[in-house]
């Protein structure tokens, strides 16, 4: 931070010094031409008293000649500075500026009319205001604008290396948010944000290590559990099936097997997040197939209760995405609606120029708003609407949200018009996440 402050301080100081020096040089150059113009006017003004004394020209005629006003005032009527008064008495033109910052030229005029002491009356001829060339009138604005532009250029040169490094860090954080923890960030050793980048790399390495350890542990535990589960199933099959606790024991073993399969499936999806197989997918046909397949299995899913499906989709709806993963996502959402809905399940799919929208809603008990964010977290189960008898391990919605995120989209939860929960899957155009991956 101290290094950043010092470098910025010196950059601004250098910029101000450069602006001051360059402005002075430009001012002197332009002022020289302005001084020549004023000098010519002053020489002309010095001849006005002679013309008036000769009587050849009147004041109005001289005004027309030089195209400016002429006023004759008493010398003592104006409070002159000693230096100004001395210059006038030496019969040298005196340049002054009025309240509007306009140039006036004053010359001494010794009138022949004498006063009480037989002394000539000293007057002052004021010529002006004099309009100088447009360059001189706009010089201050031009220099001010040029100074601001020069300062902006200096600050831009100073900020460019910092901006370039921040863009690299931003790109790395985007890759980090999408699961790529191995992206390399190369910056100069003198970069002011190098300590920040080093800390970021250290954090990424530690998170990557923890994720790898977690995956290895999950896979190891899942695989190691399969052997004793197989032994248990074999032992249960050899026991007398008439015993009272045998069905419950089989159910517990089946639940453990389902949990292991879900965990392994979740880990497989984690490793496939950068391998999206994007194709033109017939969304209408995909949803129809999903409904037909789940209808065939609905008896085993929901205790023989009849479910009414309503599908609203254009038969020509085709969208670029990973068909296998979208199929997995819609299957999880429709299965959820079957499991927790009472009798009605409504599926709506439509698309615009930017994104695909698939909403799945039911008439079940719904989900409270305070749980909207937590339901997408892995192993989250809500006691109010999810219990052990209904199945589920809290991984289905986590998988849905993760697949949506891989497509640079999301899954939103809201209240359904049917009274239950409404899940809306949002998938943007494939070009967005393809460009992100590349």
Structural notes for this entry:
This protein has a 5-stranded mixed beta sheet. A 4-stranded antiparallel beta sheet has the order 1-4-3-2, sandwiched between helices. The chain contains 13 helices and 11 strands. Helices cover 54% and strands 18% of the residues. The chain has helices at 2-46, 48-54, 59-66, 82-89, 134-137, 139-177, 194-238, 246-271, 283-296, 298-301, 323-340, 396-406, 430-437, and strands spanning 70-74, 94-97, 103-114, 120-130, 278-282, 308-313, 318-322, 344-351, 355-362, 410-415, 421-428. Strand 2 and strand 3 form a beta hairpin. Helix 8 packs parallel to helix 12 (396-406). The chain is of the alpha+beta class. It has 4 domains: 1-46 and 138-176, no CATH class; 57-133, no CATH class; 193-271, Signal transduction histidine kinase, dimerisation/phosphotransfer (DHp) domain (Helix Hairpins), CATH 1.10.287.130; 276-437, Heat Shock Protein 90, CATH 3.30.565.10. The two termini are 34 Å apart.
């Amino acid at each position: 931070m101290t290094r950043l402050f010092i470098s910025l301080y010196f950059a601004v100081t250098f910029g101000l010094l450069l602006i001051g020096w360059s402005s002075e040089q430009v001012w002197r150059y332009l002022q020289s031409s302005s001084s020549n113009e004023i000098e010519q006017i002053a020489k002309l003004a010095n001849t006005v008293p002679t013309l008036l004394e000769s009587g050849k020209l009147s004041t109005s005629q001289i005004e027309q000649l030089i195209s400016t006003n002429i006023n004759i005032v008493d010398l003592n009527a104006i409070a002159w500075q000693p230096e100004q008064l001395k210059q006038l008495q030496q019969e040298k033109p005196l340049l002054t500026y009025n309240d509007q910052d306009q140039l006036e030229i004053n010359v001494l005029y010794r009138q022949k009319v004498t006063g009480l002491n037989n002394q000539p009356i000293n007057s002052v001829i004021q010529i002006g205001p004099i309009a100088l060339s447009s360059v001189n009138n706009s010089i201050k604005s031009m220099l001010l604008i040029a100074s601001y532009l020069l300062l902006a250029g200096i600050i831009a040169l100073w900020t460019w290396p910092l901006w370039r490094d921040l863009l690299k860090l931003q790109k790395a954080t985007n890759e980090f948010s999408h699961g790529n923890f191995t992206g390399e960030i190369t910056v100069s050793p003198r970069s002011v944000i190098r300590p920040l980048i080093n800390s970021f790399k250290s954090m990424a390495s530690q998170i990557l290590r923890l994720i790898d350890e977690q995956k290895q542990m999950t896979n190891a535990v899942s695989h190691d559990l399969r052997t004793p589960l197989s032994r248990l199933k074999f032992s249960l099959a050899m026991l007398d099936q008439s015993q009272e606790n045998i069905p419950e024991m089989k159910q517990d073993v089946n639940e453990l097997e389902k949990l292991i399969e879900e965990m392994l499936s979740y880990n497989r999806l984690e490793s496939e997040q950068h391998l999206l197989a994007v194709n033109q997918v017939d969304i209408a046909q995909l949803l129809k197939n999903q409904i037909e397949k789940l209808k065939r299995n609905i008896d085993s899913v929901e205790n023989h209760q009849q479910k009414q499906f309503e599908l609203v989709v254009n038969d020509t709806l085709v969208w670029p995405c990973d068909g296998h993963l979208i199929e997995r996502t819609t299957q999880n959402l429709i299965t959820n609606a079957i499991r927790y809905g009472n009798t009605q399940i409504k599926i709506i799919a439509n698309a615009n120029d930017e994104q695909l929208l698939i909403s799945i809603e039911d008439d079940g008990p719904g989900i409270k708003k305070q749980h909207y964010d937590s339901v997408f977290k892995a192993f989250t189960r809500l006691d109010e609407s999810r219990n052990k008898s209904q199945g589920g391990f809290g991984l289905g919605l986590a998988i849905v949200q993760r697949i949506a995120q891989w497509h640079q989209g999301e899954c939103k939860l809201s209240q359904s018009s049917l009274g239950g929960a409404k899940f809306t899957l949002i998938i943007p155009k494939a070009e967005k996440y393809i460009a992100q991956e590349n």
